[in-house]
Design a protein that fits this description.
It is built from no helices and 10 strands. Strands 2-10-9-4-5-6 form a 6-stranded mixed sheet, with no helix packed on it. A 4-stranded antiparallel sheet has the order 1-3-8-7, with no helix packed on it. A hairpin with a 5-residue loop joins strand 5 and strand 6.
Length: 113
C-alpha cells in the first residue's frame, strides 16, 4: 500500500525559506511521477511542482524561480525547497502522485508579512 508522509512545514516571515520533505513507503517511488500540491483556505487544490521518474520537473508559473523540487531515490524522499516566501504561499501543502490517486496528510505552511 502506498503511503506518503510530508514534513517540514511551519510558520515563517515573508522572505524566509522552508524545505518540505515527503517520504514514500510501500512502493518504489523512483518509478513514479510525484508532485507537490497546495490548497489555500477556500480554494481548490492546485499543483505546485512535479518530478517524473526521469527527474524531469515542472512548476506552476507562480513559483518558478522560487521553489525547487527534487528527490533522493536512495531515501525514497521528495523535497520542495521554497525560497523568498510570500504570504500568498500560505496553504496546506500535500505530496501526491501525479495521477492524484495517493496523497499524504499534508503539512501547513504559513507565511506572515
Amino acid at each position: 500500500q502506498v503511503q506518503l508522509m510530508e514534513s517540514g512545514g511551519g510558520s515563517v516571515q515573508a522572505g524566509g525559506s522552508l524545505r518540505l520533505s515527503c517520504v514514500a513507503s510501500g512502493y518504489n517511488s523512483s518509478r513514479e511521477c510525484l508532485g507537490w500540491f497546495r490548497q489555500a483556505s477556500g480554494k481548490e487544490r492546485e499543483a505546485v511542482a512535479t518530478i517524473d521518474s526521469y527527474g524531469s520537473t515542472s512548476y506552476a508559473d507562480s513559483v518558478k524561480g522560487r521553489f525547487t523540487i527534487s528527490k533522493d531515490n536512495t531515501k525514497n524522499t521528495m523535497y520542495l525547497q521554497m525560497n523568498s516566501l510570500k504570504p500568498e504561499h500560505t496553504a496546506m501543502y500535500y505530496c501526491g502522485t501525479c495521477n492524484k490517486v495517493s496523497w499524504g496528510p499534508g503539512t501547513q505552511v504559513t507565511v506572515s508579512s
